[in-house]
Capsular polysaccharide biosynthesis protein
Amino acid sequence: MVQNTLVFSLLAVLSVGLFLAVDMFMKNGSSTDDPTSHEATDHENIPEEPTVALTFVGDVMMSGNVEKRLLEKGFDFPFAHVRSVFLQDDYTIANLETPVTLRGTPSENKEFVYKSAPESVPAMKAAGIDAVNLANNHSMDQGVEGLLDTFAALDENQIAYVGAGKDAKRAYAPVYVEKKGIRIALLGFSRVIPEVSWYAGKNQPGLAATYDPELAVKAIQEAKKNADLVVVIAHWGKEKVDFPVDHQKMLARAYIDAGADLIVGGHPHVLQGFEQYQDKWIAYSMGNFIFTRAVEPKTWDSMVLQATCTKTGDCHLKMLPYYAELGQAVPMNDADGAALIKRIESISENVTIEADGSVLAKRS
């Protein structure tokens, strides 16, 4: 009996030991001496680099035929299809291609002169637009009076603005914003200004001109000292052409050499391609977004540009295809969107655009 008891006790101890060994093996997926298990654990503990999600759109204006439609449909009508996109990111930036005022003196000797109602600005804010660029060839269509009213309307609705100011210091100054621990500097400059009188001066309200890049370069260099990520909104180029002209390329390189991490352009009223320089992205033209419906079909093509950027200034871009209908941005269907992605890829410089709109640099 004693001998049998000892045998049973020994078998019980062996069974418990075997159970514990199998249990440990199953939990670890290997023996505790397997270095790969430690590598996986260490890798999982490495925190992901924080990123900020920025959204950019092209020309926005609520004048003429657009205003007529908004008076019928409501001032929130332009953003019905994009509000959810704007509200889920960290910061949304548009090019405001109009003064917002009830006053002003219309500019002379211009084919198109815009003036938008103040009611449009609360609708922009409600849709998720956080900042606008005013450095363009329409912000002073109603003179200094109209420009100052625009500042007031934006300030009242807590929409930041760049590229214009009560004097040159404010016009060239960046707007700083911090999101997810990443400090962003946003600036705006224009190389398309109808009159020298529109230039911001020492005591003169106006726009940040960049025919000579010196002041813009200085502003970018200063911003880089105070921000992790420097974004420039540029108004430049030639209307209704697919490719950037020489001054766009020259200015883009000067801005990036000065410290810009991302450049988003406008003015041509059509989409232009993407290019990467010194590992920094340039989107040469965003085209129209909330605008009138021109005759030329290319002006109907638009996009929402999403940029996911790190604290070190690396950005991943993704284009979402849209149509610029009369006064409203509307998503393209799958077939039209795929065709637009292919077209933009074809006019870009050493770039591949994937089916989901992700913009990638070709590597030689």
About this structure: DSSP finds ten helices and 18 strands in the chain.
